[in-house]
Amino acid sequence: KAGVTQTPRYLIKTRGQQVTLSCSPISGHRSVSWYQQTPGQGLQFLFEYFSETQRNKGNFPGRFSGRQFSNSRSEMNVSTLELGDSALYLCASSSDRDIMTGTEAFFGQGTRLTVV
Amino acid sequence: QQQVKQSPQSLIVQKGGISIINCAYENTAFDYFPWYQQFPGKGPALLIAIRPDVSEKKEGRFTISFNKSAKQFSLHIMDSQPGDSATYFCAASHRAPNTGNQFYFGTGTSLTVIP
């Protein structure tokens, strides 16, 4: 069974540009979450999508947005990039079968974004 | 506000020794406590997880101890090996209908096992 796939693995962008990252979850998983990982802040939750709907959102500015497609693949977009957006962006997928308790989350290898 | 507090920040252990990493949380609604292992250049990988209805869970050399009343849980790595050298994250999550599944992570512990 294939794991969580994130593309691209590395990106270098200029301040002010926008970027789109992609995540393909494990087959059959309908929940996709995004996290930002930086040395100073650790892993910070961005948002979660389930069945094409954003279910939960972390404390990030509106420049960070996402969407999910009918095949559960998800994209994350960051507009007007700032130097501080340089980070490892991780995607996690869950089966979400048990709606009332926490479920296992499996992470991709991440996309390393560098803003210059 | 850090919902899950993790310590120590770094840990050096001799090969064969026991590595212990501790986490504490405040939100009593949390009902799932996983530990993740992350190697450089890789995403976090689920190592072991526990739910609050048990006090201990063991998988091979890895054991989670859970103290619900103290709101603390810890990871014990027995017979630590150089290949265990990685960053370890504890996490906690809770679910409610229609609100999704959000994980709160500790700040990570960098473990180095010396041969």
3D structure, described in words:
The complex is a heterodimer of chains A (about 120) and B (about 120). Chain A has about 120 residues and is an all-beta fold. Chain A is about 0% helix and about 50% strand. Chain A has no helices and eleven strands. Chain A has strands at about 5, 10-15, 20-25, 30-40, 40-50, 55, 65-70, 75-80, 85-95, 105, 110-115. In chain A, the strands form two sheets. In chain A, strands 2, 4, 5, 6, 9, 10 and 11 form a seven-stranded mixed β-sheet that branches. In chain A, strands 1-3-8-7 form a four-stranded antiparallel β-sheet, with no helix packed on it. In chain A, β4 and β5 form a beta hairpin. Chain B has about 120 residues and is mainly beta. In chain B, about 0% of the residues lie in helices and about 60% in strands. Chain B contains no helices and eleven strands. In chain B, the strands form two sheets. In chain B, strands 2, 4, 5, 9, 10 and 11 form a six-stranded mixed β-sheet that branches. In chain B, strands 1-3-8-7-6 form a five-stranded antiparallel β-sheet, with no helix packed on it.
Please sum up the structure shown.
The complex is a heterodimer of chains A (116) and B (115). Chain A is an all-beta fold and 116 residues long.
Global geometry of chain A: globular
The rough form of chain B would be described as globular
The helix/strand order of chain B is EEEEEEEEEEE
Biggest sheet statistics of chain A: 7 strands, mixed
Class by helix and strand content of chain A?
mainly beta
Order of helices and strands of chain A: EEEEEEEEEEE
- Major β-sheet of chain B, in short? 6 strands, mixed
Low-confidence stretches of chain B are: none
Count of helix runs of chain A: 0
Q: What's the β-strand tally of chain B?
A: 11
Q: Give the termini distance of chain B in whole angstroms.
A: 38 Å
